Amino acid sequence: MSTTSLRILDQAERLFAEQGFNETSLRAITSAAEVNIASVNYHFGSKKNLIQAVFNRYLEDFYSGYNEQISALAVDSQAVTQRQAIEAAIIAMLGRDLNVARARRFMMLLRHAYAQQQGHLRRFIQDHYNDDYRRMIQHLAGKKLQDGAKLKFYWRLQFLMGAAMFSLAEFDTLDAIADAQYHERISTHELLDLFIPTALAILNPQSEEC
User: Fold this and answer.
1) Which end of the chain offers a freer environment for a tag, N or C, measured as fewer CB atoms within 10 Å?
2) What is the pTM of this model?
């Protein structure tokens, strides 16, 4: 990828995360990247393609990292535990350099993708990452789901995603509130450590009332 396209991609990722997809114009991106509109059209073709490229860069690294972590366990794919799957997903989310800031930015992007109904993005992800996604979901489920349990697990997974998106995307605000109330702060790494047992509890409620 050329220096120009990387510069466009970096600024698009930042602005989309901070402002949202609908609110970010191509002109704002080109101004931040110090290129002209023709450069965006040449390298990406359209704003939709640029949005897809932003997600593709992250998802390519994420699923590569996740599959690498699972392979390192040296166990059959069917034997991967839910805790191992969650830990592998967290490490993959942070990337090889354990970049918490980038993980937080991606959660902000995901939040906008859900809120602004980017149908083209959902289709793009299904076309390119459906097999990887299904494999990870199988690991997170911890067992083969019967038809009657699939819908419940789907919603538990959405609760989990919602918790992750809100906690990471709004970390600075939540941390400031905690500091005001309890006079204590927490690092994002400590937050992720707290997240693992919470994720397990969401995916495996002890009763239907949980």
Assistant:
1) C
2) 0.85
